């Protein structure tokens, strides 16, 4: 089936099977490998991309569902001014280690900041609870995102 | 074993000891960092593995005909394709076939593999292979494995692997594949007469490391040899094992290691490389296999273990003797079980001044997933047990947990393992620091408990590392070193070490992933060894380049070399200066050249395990928990850890290591557990196997960095990153016990804690 979407700001037309997952189409067919596959069951969030501005797990999202929508991956987001501020906060706080969950956290943080959902520590903990990170233990991520949100974080 | 301890030039360049931005931050934030699953090479096929659905069975027949004729299927690998080689591997014990031959020993064991044009086709073909199994009695638990009439998981003779490193391997005894015994019978009379004796049996769960990136390999087999892109922490050991397995020279096996999406031990030694190479060999084309999570979960896991332990003390709190027997469930294949067993045996006594101790640790086969390395192995299994008993003694004699430790802990220079390296850390000082950091003496709320735990982990593995440091014509530096960047910040630390020696900004030093064809040998990335050993090699190699720069500078200025200073990327003498590029041009002319330094670190003694370790990694943490007595829910409110690192190369990254280890320890202590029934894993996915999320982060956590300059590594550094894991498990266990709940089994799930509370109340009725 034919799918028309806006991918990283560009009109894009794709032929996909009804069962194709968005993550596979992005990674295997389009070479957009910044999003990662890990749990396959929408727990880890490593495959997060933005669809119409909101974070979705692309491992459980049909490519066909993206028809008529705006899809943003890290490859698109890193070219926008909003990326630099988030990346700088994550780097300053060393809120990344192996990097496998990092692009997903960057995209999720951006979406939640845009929606004004990150107001205090509790909202950051709630908002990021769908993004696993096995390396950092989350303290650095909490600090970085609190910094971005202008919120106080416990220590 | 003494590691060569060249005190490299400390020129105060300010590169070591600063929290520089990670050198890999931008690549990772931008999604440009490459991992094995991102790599595509021309002609590459996709591989999928057919895995056993039963824990123990004879393979009666296998029919691949339907799968073979499916469009897009290129090759199917079965045991019949391995007749030209000895297909058994395993770095400790060579007990494991590349694919099952004649029988299967655990659910998830590879039985066959398919290479096809895409993953969907490979997956469909795997499902079309028909295997008939004849079920055999299952050895599902330690009890079943140790029963007098237990079926044998393995029945052939023990064949030592290339890297067991534990002296002569004993012959298998029933299902016991390795045994580690230390101590003496002098414990017996002490227990007979001691005023205080505490005793118990404790259960530790099997857990999954969950590196978010699963195991993955791209393999190519052609006239030039075997080329791999693999998720491996120890590429040089994998290279040797692949060369031996496929009977080719070392130089014809080439392994590339891109970024790893976490390791934690799960990618140590050989894992998915043999089956991927065998499949690519059959297909005659490159093949990529990337595990799903449920596959990586049974590729390697952490040992579940049972410990019986007793501790003797005087009525005034002096610790006298300890005895322990430990059974490690290594699953169907030994993997790193023998080493885990030995390290656990060493951790069992704990770092106290015993009059006598005796430990007997056994490594046991069962029909479950093979068990191997996971951060702070051995110490994580044993420290919580020993520390619970120290606290039990303290409670019995009416002493504070800090005080009893202050009285009994080993002091620097004390022997902590007979014939091994003496204690190289100030444990009493560390305990006082961690207690302060937690707020040990603060008033406490109802239903809270506080605990702290102390231990040591034999760290460093085998001390062999080498490095090349090159200064390019423009003054930038490239470091070639074979340790793997898996998130710990190894590339950043190596850049800082080289930059310190060369008196230049670390931002101008690059450190890349391993390509075994060009990167010099490094034993492994694990046992907290990279900064200490690879770092020492980098320091020494950089010192050679430094000497070169000074030699050239001495041609510029007719003064003694001692009057020439290297600072901020230039040689300086009197009021004059020459930049490094100017010095390089002076030697090579305008077309440029390279200054190269090369160095290695190697053992001074025989290099045996008994002579080690390279250093004792300190495992100290404290925790405050709240126990909801109605529901059994344990909440970790506050943690403190000690990073006793000798010298922090990058203080921020040291803290981040402790924070990560703390969170993994919280998962291991409170809720992570692989649940088996009759050899079948019941929770083989992340919905049912829960790992910590940001909501599990304690409200407060502190990491105290201790820099006593007492490490054998560069600038007095020693490794970190694992100790807090063992420390925090012990701290949580002792804190829950302090809250009045008996602790005998981890994880401390609400149900388990609630039952303990109910049983205790019934006992009191």
Q: Care to describe what's here?
A:
The complex is a heterodimer of chains A (155) and B (765). Chain A is α+β, with helices and mostly antiparallel strands. Helix content of chain A is 35%, strand content 15%. A five-stranded mixed sheet of chain A has the order 2-1-5-3-4. In chain A, a hairpin with a 2-residue loop joins strand 1 (2-7) and strand 2 (10-15). Chain A is elongated. In chain A, 55% of the residues are buried. With 765 residues, chain B is of the alpha+beta class. Among the domains of chain B are: 25-33 and 464-601, Aldehyde oxidase/xanthine dehydrogenase, molybdopterin binding domain (Aldehyde Oxidoreductase, domain 4), CATH 3.30.365.10; 378-461 and 609-764, Aldehyde Oxidoreductase, domain 4, CATH 3.30.365.10. Helices cover 27% and strands 25% of the residues of chain B. In chain B, helix 10 runs parallel beside helix 17 (723-738) and helix 16 (651-670) packs across helix 17. Classes of the chains: A alpha+beta (155), B alpha+beta (765). At the A-B interface, helix 3, helix 4, helix 5 and helix 6 of A face helix 1, helix 16 and strand 32 of B.
């Amino acid at each position: 089936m034919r799918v028309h979407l806006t991918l990283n700001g560009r009109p894009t037309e794709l032929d996909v099977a009804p069962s194709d997952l968005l993550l596979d189409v992005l990674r295997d067919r389009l070479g957009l490998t910044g999003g990662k596959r890990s749990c396959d069951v929408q727990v880890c969030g490593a495959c997060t991309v933005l669809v119409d501005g909101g974070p979705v797990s692309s491992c459980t999202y049909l490519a066909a569902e993206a028809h008529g929508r705006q899809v943003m991956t890290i490859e698109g987001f890193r070219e926008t001014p909003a990326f630099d501020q988030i990346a700088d906060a994550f780097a300053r706080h060393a809120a990344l280690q192996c990097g496998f969950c990092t692009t997903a956290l960057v995209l999720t943080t951006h979406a939640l900041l845009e929606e004004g959902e990150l107001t205090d520590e509790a909202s950051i903990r709630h908002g990021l609870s769908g993004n696993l990170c096995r390396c950092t233990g989350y303290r650095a991520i909490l600090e970085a995102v609190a910094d971005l949100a202008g919120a106080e974080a416990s220590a | 074993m003494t590691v060569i301890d060249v005190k490299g030039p400390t020129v105060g360049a300010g590169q070591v000891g600063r929290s520089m931005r990670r050198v890999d931050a931008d690549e990772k934030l931008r999604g440009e960092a490459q991992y094995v699953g991102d790599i595509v090479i021309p002609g590459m096929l996709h591989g999928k593995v057919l895995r056993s659905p039963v824990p123990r069975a004879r393979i009666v027949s296998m029919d691949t005909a339907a799968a073979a004729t499916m469009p897009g299927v290129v090759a199917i690998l079965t045991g019949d394709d391995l007749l030209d080689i000895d297909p058994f591997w395993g770095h400790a014990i060579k007990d494991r076939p590349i694919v099952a031959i004649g029988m299967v020993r655990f659910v998830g064991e590879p039985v066959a593999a398919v290479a096809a044009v895409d993953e969907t086709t490979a997956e469909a073909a795997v499902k079309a292979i028909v295997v008939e199994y004849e079920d055999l009695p299952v050895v599902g638990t330690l009890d079943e494995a140790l029963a007098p009439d237990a079926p044998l998981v393995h029945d052939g003779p023990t064949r030592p692997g290339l890297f067991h490193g534990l002296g002569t391997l004993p012959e298998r005894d029933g299902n016991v594949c390795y045994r580690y015994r230390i101590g003496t019978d002098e414990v017996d009379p002490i227990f007979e007469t001691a005023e205080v004796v505490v005793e118990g049996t404790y259960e530790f769960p099997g857990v999954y490391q969950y590196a978010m990136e699963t195991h993955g390999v791209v393999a190519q087999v052609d006239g030039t040899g075997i080329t791999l892109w693999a998720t491996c922490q120890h590429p040089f050991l994998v290279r040797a094992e692949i060369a031996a397995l496929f009977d080719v020279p070392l130089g014809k096996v080439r392994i590339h290691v891109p970024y790893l999406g976490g390791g934690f031990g799960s990618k140590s030694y050989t894992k998915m490389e043999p089956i991927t190479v065998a499949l690519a060999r059959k297909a005659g084309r490159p093949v990529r296999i990337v595990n799903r999570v449920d596959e990586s979960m049974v590729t390697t896991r952490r040992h579940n273990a049972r410990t019986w332990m007793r501790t003797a003390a005087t009525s005034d709190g002096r610790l006298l003797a300890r005895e322990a027997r430990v059974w490690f469930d290594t699953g169907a294949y030994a993997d790193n079980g023998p080493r885990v067993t030995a390290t656990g045996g060493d951790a069992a006594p704990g770092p106290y001044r015993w009059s006598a101790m005796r430990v007997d640790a056994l490594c046991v086969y069962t029909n479950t997933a093979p068990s191997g390395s996971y951060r702070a192995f051995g110490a994580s299994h044993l420290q919580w047990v020993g520390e619970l008993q120290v606290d039990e003694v303290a409670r019995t004699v009416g002493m504070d947990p800090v005080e009893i430790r202050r009285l009994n802990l080993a002091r620097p220079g004390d022997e902590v393992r007979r014939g091994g390296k003496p204690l190289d850390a100030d444990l009493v000082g560390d305990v006082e620091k961690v207690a302060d950091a937690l707020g040990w003496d603060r008033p406490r709320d109802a239903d809270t408990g506080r605990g702290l735990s102390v231990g040591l982990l034999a760290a460093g593995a085998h001390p062999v590392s080498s490095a090349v440091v090159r200064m390019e014509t423009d003054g930038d530096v490239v470091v070639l070193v074979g340790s793997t960047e898996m998130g710990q910040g190894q590339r950043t630390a190596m850049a800082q070490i080289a930059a310190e020696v060369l008196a230049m900004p670390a931002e101008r030093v690059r450190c890349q992933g391993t390509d075994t064809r060009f990167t010099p040998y490094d034993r492994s990335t694990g046992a907290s060894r990279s900064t200490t050993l690879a770092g020492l090699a980098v320091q020494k190699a950089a010192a050679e380049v430094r000497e070169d720069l000074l030699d050239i500078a001495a041609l510029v200025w007719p003064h003694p070399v001692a009057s020439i200073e290297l600072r901020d990327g230039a040689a300086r003498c009197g009021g004059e200066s020459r930049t490094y590029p100017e010095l390089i041009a002076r030697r090579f002319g305008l077309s440029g050249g390279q200054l190269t330094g090369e160095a290695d670190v190697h053992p001074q003694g025989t290099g045996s395990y008994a002579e080690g370790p390279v250093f004792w990694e300190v495992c100290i943490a404290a925790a405050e928990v709240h126990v909801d007595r109605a529901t059994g829910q344990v909440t970790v409110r506050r943690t403190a850890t000690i990073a006793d690192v000798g010298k922090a190369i990058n203080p921020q990254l040291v803290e981040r290591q402790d924070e990560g280890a703390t969170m993994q320890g919280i998962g291991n202590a409170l809720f992570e557990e692989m649940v088996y029934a009759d050899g079948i894993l019941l929770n083989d996915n992340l919905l049912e196997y829960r790992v910590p999320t940001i909501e599990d982060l304690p409200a407060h956590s502190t990491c105290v960095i201790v820099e006593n300059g007492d490490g054998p590594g560069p600038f007095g550094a020693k490794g970190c990153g694992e100790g807090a894991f063992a420390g925090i498990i012990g701290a949580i266990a002792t804190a829950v016990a302090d809250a009045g709940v008996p602790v005998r089994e981890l994880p401390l799930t609400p149900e388990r804690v609630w039952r303990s509370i109910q049983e205790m109340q019934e006992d009191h009725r």
